Amino acid sequence: MSDGERQKREAIVEHCKALNRTGLNQGTSGNISIRHEEGMLISPTSRPYDSLMPEDVVFVDKAGNPTGHFAPSSEWRFHRDILLHRDEVNAVVHAHPTYCTTLAIMGKSIPPIHYMLAVFGGSTIRCAPYEIYGSPELSELAVKALEDRKACLLAHHGMIAVGSSIEQAFWLAGELEALAKQYHGCLQLGEPPLLSEQQIQDVIAKISEYGLTSVKSPENKGLDA
């Protein structure tokens, strides 16, 4: 195993544990992948994250053939298909955080309630229609919902965040859950006022000026500094 591969495996283990530690996920339901060679490395199915080891991470090639001690996550298909369709994406985070999942159950996309929507590439976070987990149909809908975006919701299921690095994808997952919580709170009071498409595009342009189009960690400055 090369040093580069080991680092990717360790990063998957670290961020799987962080999903549960930060409350973005519960149990073993989430999964994480990182692009690697002619395929991807992905967390295994049904393995407790607190005892997960780098050697437990599974390699899956572009044809969907796994190599490893365990079976890959049952959601390997949409991880693979996202990476195949998005050359700029190198990591995918899927989880079932409470507020994202609540909105997803209600079939609600997240509208432009806050300027931080801009870090996801547009004015909305789409909610893909429901299909059973692990299916080609779900994968197709997820890829479509992620078009020109860095995150989406999955109806009656959870969320997906993607990034140029695992650090970026994980950070965006946390930002998405924060936005979902804010939108949920707004809905308790009524329909919130929304930013316009132009206002969101202005923020996207400003983010680009600060070099945050490839945000890698929450330490990046410029969004509100």
Question: What is the count of DSSP helices, taking H or I runs of 4+ residues?
Answer: 6
Gyration radius from CA atoms, angstroms: 17 Å
Helices and strands, in order, run as HEEEEHEHEHEEHH
Q: pLDDT average, as an integer?
A: 94
- Strands of the biggest beta sheet: in what spatial order? 4-3-2-1-5-8-7-6
The helix content is 25-40%
Biggest sheet features: 8 strands, mixed
Q: Report the count of strand segments.
A: 8
Summing up helix and strand content along with how strands pair, one would put the structural category as alpha+beta
The coarse silhouette is globular
Q: Into which percentage range does the β-strand content fall?
A: 5-15%
Low-pLDDT segments? 213-222
Protein name: Class II aldolase/adducin family protein
GO molecular function, one term: metal ion binding
GO biological process, one term: pentose catabolic process
InterPro entries: Aldolase_class_II_sugar_metab (IPR050197), Aldolase_II/adducin_N (IPR001303), Aldolase_II/adducin_N_sf (IPR036409)
